[in-house]
Amino acid sequence: MPVENSVEAALAALRQAVGGLENAVDMRFEAERESSEIDAEVRRVHADRARLAQELDESQFRANSLEEVNREVSRRLVTAMETIRAVLDR
């Protein structure tokens, strides 16, 4: 009987060790999955940031172009008004 008890005790310890190993493997897989999700989210954030930076640059370029056109239109209006005044003053 003592041998049978020690075999049962050894099997119980083995089962417990295997269960602990399975839990550790499951936890490791979960940590890897979460890490992959975090890495994917970081890549998405970087891609969004790059896209937004490009859109901001394009918007700034467009605003600068519109400002330049606005100055040219204003200059032409002033010239036209001066020409009209000169004609009216004759």
UniProtKB/TrEMBL annotation:
Pfam families: DUF4164. InterPro entries: DUF4164. This is DUF4164 family protein. It comes from Rhizobium glycinendophyticum.
